[in-house]
Amino acid sequence: MFDVYLNDKHDLLVVPQGAPLPVTGALAKWRKKKTRVIGVSHEIRLAVQKQGYYMRKASDFGKH
Asked: Which end of the chain is more exposed for a tag (fewer CB within 10 A), N or C?
């Protein structure tokens, strides 16, 4: 399972459940989504396994 965070710019941060926020994401004020996320896309799952987190800016949403 995963914890999903959003900031005031609607950027997305996904970390494994219970993991602390990464240093790169600690500068922004993140708020945790209240709903629990069980499944994510293959791209996000690979990034979390490799880096320990997945972060995407809101401007990148339309590019996929």
From this structure: C
